[in-house]
């Protein structure tokens, strides 16, 4: 299969979505045949659709016959022109993803819609799925469970890791005390899967398991040995494909 890095440049289209807070670019890739549905693929803090861990997820969906819509969300250091990275926040990231989720529903009404997210994107899609009973499924990769969990993980990594996020993203840091995906996860009726790196220091295995356990219809969990926060490669591709099969995608 052609990898997404090539599909993105050769076959994907780009479009812009207007929101109350500005324009959000979207990257849209179609599978080789008729699409079974559309997945909104949400990157994390300082993420981008072209990053390897996002490309890996999109590749899995394209291989399963799903259309992929990947927004370039505001305030990412990986996306020049997206706004100041220090202005990123849990709520702002989720709200921007929600606008893209609504856009997908308007573009392909009546077709199955799925949600996938990496890191902070996993936090966002939990909230979107909780408010959308028609969500086909949720796939979370290295997902953020809560701001408090992130704080504890960074504290374990040492003072420099904590000071880094305080300096780089003050609004995000302030929301760490209250941001929590667990209540949203408790309300999700769609089947859910989690794929994570067993060696991830930012999202420790216990937090990824807690995210999975919080969803009433959790179907598939995979922890990849020796993988960190941005899993990719053959083992990851196999796990993602198995997850999509378990989710009926």
TrEMBL record:
Q: Know the name of this protein? A: Serine aminopeptidase S33 domain-containing protein
Q: Which Pfam family is one of those matched by this entry?
A: Hydrolase_4
Residue ranges of every copy of the Serine aminopeptidase S33 domain listed in the record: 34-150
InterPro entries reported in the protein's UniProt record:
AB_hydrolase_fold, Hydrolase_4
């Amino acid at each position: 299969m052609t990898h997404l890095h090539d599909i993105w440049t050769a076959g994907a289209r780009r479009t812009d979505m207007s929101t109350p807070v500005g324009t959000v670019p979207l990257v849209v890739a179609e599978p080789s045949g008729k699409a079974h549905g559309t997945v909104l693929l949400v990157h994390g803090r300082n993420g981008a659709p072209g990053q390897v861990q996002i490309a890996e997820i999109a590749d899995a969906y394209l291989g399963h016959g799903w259309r992929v819509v990947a927004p370039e969300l505001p305030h990412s250091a990986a996306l020049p022109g997206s706004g100041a990275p220090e202005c990123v926040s849990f709520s702002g990231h989720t709200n921007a993803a929600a606008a893209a989720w609504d856009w997908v529903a308007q573009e392909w009404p009546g077709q199955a819609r799925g949600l996938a997210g990496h890191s902070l994107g996993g936090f966002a899609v939990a909230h979107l799925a909780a408010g959308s009973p028609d969500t086909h499924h949720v796939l979370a990769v290295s997902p953020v469970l809560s701001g408090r969990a992130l704080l504890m993980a960074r504290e374990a990594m040492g003072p420099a890791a904590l000071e880094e996020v305080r300096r780089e993203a003050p609004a995000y840091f302030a929301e760490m005390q209250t941001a929590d995906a667990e209540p949203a996860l408790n309300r999700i009726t769609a089947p859910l899967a989690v794929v994570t790196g067993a060696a991830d220091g930012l999202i420790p295995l216990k937090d990824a398991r807690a995210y999975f356990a919080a969803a009433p219809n959790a179907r598939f969990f995979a922890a990849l040995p020796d993988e960190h926060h941005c899993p990719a490669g053959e083992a990851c591709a196999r796990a993602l494909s198995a997850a999509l099969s378990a989710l009926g995608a």
